Amino acid sequence: MGRSRPDERGPPSPGPAAPPAPPAPPPRCARALALLGALLAAAAAAAAARAFARYTEAQAAARQESALKALGTEGLFLFSSLDTDRDLYLSPEEFGPLAEKLTGSTPTASYEEEELPPDPSEETLTIEARFQPLLPESMTKSKDGFLGVSRLALSGLRNWTTAASPRAQFAARHFRPFLPPRGQAELGEPWWVIPSELNVFTGYLSNNRFYPPPPKGKEVIIHRLLSMFHPRPFVKTRFAPQGAVACVTAVSDFYYTVMFRIHAEFQLSEPPDFPFWFSPGQFTGHIVLSKDATHVRDFRLFVPNHRSLNVDMEWLYGASENSNMEVDIGYIPQMELEATGPSVPSVIMDEDGNMIDSRLPSGEPLQFVFEEIRWQQELSWEEAARRLEVAMYPFKKVTYLPFTEAFDQAKAKNKLVHSILLWGALDDQSC
């Protein structure tokens, strides 16, 4: 047999390249070290975060202790009531209300001048305040000497016997916030004039405050109206539901009747006294105004007085707002604002554009004749009130019945009875 010999035609042509071999997996100990390094880094970051948090808390505690030594308990309490952002520094805006109180001065440009400038060509109306103070005997807990209650604690309440401004003039256009939003003028459909910023999950605002924040936008007219009762109204309450809700109850070619419900409260004390909060169950009422808000035919706002208790009161009797708080409920017979008549032009012009004297030669004022409003759609007061109530308290979608009626309904429908016993009303701010 002969030996084979290499092919004399040359080396064979190369085939397709083989794929690279996968890298060898790292040793198990290397993977363990990498994981341990990551865990140690995470632990170090967490420890650093905790250390920074403790450092921040220690700094805050040191500043708090320093402030307590410098101001004393009562002084720190007053300082905290002004320090709204809780940074332990008073900005000029935070210090402003106290500076005005101490100096007796007023700001050069108030929110009224900025947002409600006068216009001599528009219609104006006069609103009167009617006020009867809270009946002391209606307070079930807070008699003198009982539960540590003193005359000093209730001094702001006892001294509030008359309305702060018995009469005030407003321009018709200032009531524009009560008009329904564009496209939402459906009869009985509620909308929020001032939305609530609180709910059952967000908690409540601090009790340790004396001066309300400057109102903005639609809050301005409500703040001006409530200021006729007392100089320190808070347009938004400390507890939910806050704000104001409204709905259209009647419609004509040129006018709306709008019913509204407002949750607001008052601070009756000023430093050095402790805060005293006065929270009516609700303000309700109606306004009849033209669709362009140039004319107001009627206006009324009041605290309902058909229940035996209609005001909640809460006050501090020490520097801690968590442990030194007392609560009671009472009855106020009358807290009401009402227009003396429809809005009328401030300046009267004849057909040639000349100004006319607003008084007759006899001295009597000119009498205006207003056209009769022909309503095309109307909703009852009771139904409108129910819808506003549901907007504020969604649980009212369930029908609540008087005690005796509930058992008749339960028997007829073969259902159980859920009975609720309260020291006030569940569906307003007096409870």
TrEMBL record:
GO CC annotations? Answer: endoplasmic reticulum membrane
GO biological process assignments: calcium ion homeostasis; skeletal muscle fiber development
Q: Where is this region: Disordered?
A: 1-27, 99-123
Name the residue ranges with Acidic residues bias. Answer: 111-122
Q: Where is the composition biased (Basic and acidic residues)?
A: 1-10
The lineage's top-level taxon is Eukaryota
**Residue stretches of biased makeup (Pro residues):** 11-27
Name-wise, this protein is: Selenoprotein N
Organism annotation: Myotis myotis (Greater mouse-eared bat)
